[in-house]
Amino acid sequence: MKKLRLGVLGCAGIYAGSVAPALKSSLLVEPYAVASRDIEKAQKYADAHGFTVPYGSYEALLADPNVDFVYIPLPNHLHLEYIKKAADAGKPIICEKPLGLNAKEAAEAAAYCQKREIPLMEAFMYRFHPQWVQAKELIRSGKLGELITVNGLFSYNNRDRANIRNIAAYGGGAILDIGCYTVSSARYLIGTEPVRAVCSITRDPSFKTDVLVSAILDFGGGKTAVFSVSTQISSYQRVTAIGTGGSFSIEIPFNMPDNAPGHIMLNDSDGKRLVESELANQYRLEFDGFAESLIQKVEVPTPVADAVANMAVLDALFKSAVSGGWETVQRY
């Protein structure tokens, strides 16, 4: 089978560190073109990561008829603009999370691509890992009884003023960078949408970005999710789901390495035990899953409506931090 040729907009660290190594074992995707606004930077990046063609502008890459689909790992504030440009060029799109700076932008991106019949998927790689398939199956099987609450923690320590995650104008901050994971995973496990949210935010006095966030999501019917995320404390991550008959904790829910099995600690009526998943590269599974949907001409693995719904929750969190109270999660 001929591999689909990938074009990447921007010389991003996420591609270099995670996606490029993953695609070395892909049978469906090959790196073909990379674009930067600096052609010399693009050439060096192409040489380092196996791209055939470097471009000195994003528009030049999008105009290349040999590009089968594009990956957009640009700063958050550029997502909507280049989703539209890629759609206009007829290129299917994997875009890094989040799709935009707010739900309105995410919905606009989704509608724009839908009108042009261009596949668009938000890049939540964690959902492709076997441990998350197992986690969802544990809930479906009734091992936890009725799932009541999900607790999430995700943090790292990055105080680099020049890093895009610390630049407010670029969509930096904890909620958009990692809060999106704790919200997404809670929605995925509970299987419904939260109706309201309340949130406390601490901002960096210099960066003005949110650096410590604690929140509660109310899903109705007595079901909740509680999480904290931070960009200025020790690195840590964990997701715990608790039901009427049991619980489980996912040891490394999001940044799962490909050289170790996933670990879910399950505690139910049969006792406490470790559930392991097979070794897997979640980035390769993500890109292969998207490529397979293009080849088979079926819906992308993670529907774009999920990205819009996730962004609506993030909007409610930002509103709550200002109002100091519960905010309704809007529907788009």
Write the layout of secondary structure elements.
Blueprint (H helix, E strand, L loop, with lengths): L3 E6 L3 H11 L5 E7 L3 H11 L3 E3 L2 H5 L6 E4 L6 H10 L4 E3 L7 H13 L4 E3 L7 H11 L6 E11 L16 H17 L5 E8 L6 E11 L2 E8 L1 E12 L3 E4 L12 E6 L2 E6 L5 H15 L7 H20 L3 E2 L4
Parallel strand pairs: 1-2, 1-4, 2-3, 4-5, 5-6, 7-10
Antiparallel strand pairs: 7-11, 8-9, 8-15, 9-10, 11-12, 12-13, 13-14
Helix pairs in contact: 1-8, 4-5, 5-9, 7-9
**Unreliable stretches:** none
**Radius of gyration over alpha carbons?**
20 Å
Class per helix and strand makeup: alpha/beta
Number of extended strands: 15
Average pLDDT, to the nearest integer?
97
Textual characterization of the structure:
Helix 1 (13-23) crosses helix 8 (282-296) and helix 4 (79-88) packs parallel to helix 5. The relative contact order is 0.16. Strand 1, helix 1 (13-23) and strand 2 form a beta-alpha-beta unit. The chain is of the alpha/beta class and 332 residues long. The chain has 9 helices and 15 strands. A 9-stranded mixed β-sheet has the order 14-13-12-11-7-10-9-8-15. It has a 6-stranded parallel β-sheet with strand order 3-2-1-4-5-6, with helices on both faces. It folds into 2 domains: 4-125, 3-Layer(aba) Sandwich (Rossmann fold), CATH 3.40.50.720; 128-284 and 311-328, 2-Layer Sandwich (Dihydrodipicolinate Reductase, domain 2). It has helices at 13-23, 39-49, 58-62, 79-88, 103-115, 130-140, 174-190, 282-296, 304-323; strands at 4-9, 29-35, 53-55, 69-72, 93-95, 120-122, 147-157, 196-203, 210-220, 223-230, 232-243, 247-250, 263-268, 271-276, 327-328. The chain is globular, with a radius of gyration of 20 Å.
